[in-house]
Amino acid sequence: MLDTGVEETRAHVQELNHRLLEGLEELSALVVTPRKRDRRGALVCVKATDVDALVAALRRDGIVTSSRDDNLRISAHCYNGVEDIDAVLDGLRRNRSLLARA
Questions:
Q1: What does pLDDT average to over the chain?
Q2: CB burial of residue 34 (10 Å; 0-12, 13-18, 19+)
Q3: Contact at 8 Å (CB) between 51 and 67?
Q4: pLDDT tens, 24-72?
Q5: What is the pLDDT at residue 86?
Q6: What kind and span of H or E run contains 45?
């Protein structure tokens, strides 16, 4: 973080989350995280029909997520890239039946 910088990391994560939110919208997923950039932090939470099954399915694909209150919790950081977000979205497409719909 000392080399990258807090502001650079924040901007990077916001851009990754923007891409993630656009992909979730295409999937008609029910996003519980505020949409406005100034109202959300670094996490994106998505409502799931069976969050434990969804976390397990993504884990089998090598994607690390977690659950909070029946929501899938996705947390990008400075070491993640666009390819990681695309992998998450691909995993969610494969497991679309486990996503709550908007």
A1: 92
A2: exposed
A3: yes
A4: 999 999 999 877 666 667 899 999 999 999 999 999 999 999 999 999 9
A5: 98
A6: strand 43-47
Torsion angles phi and psi, residue 35, rounded to 5 = -80, -30
Contacts of 7 (CB under 8 A, 6+ apart): none
pTM of the model: 0.89
Q: Report the C-alpha gap between 72 and 70 in whole angstroms.
A: 7
Q: Which residues sit opposite 48 in a β-bridge?
A: 99
Assign domain 6-98 to its CATH superfamily.
Aspartate Aminotransferase, domain 1 (3.90.1150.10)
Helices marked H in the chain — which ranges?
6-26, 51-60, 82-94
From the centroid of its chain, how far is CA 73?
Answer: 6
> 10 falls in which pLDDT band (50, 70, 90)?
confident
Residues 6 or more apart whose CB falls under 8 angstroms from that of 12 comprise 78
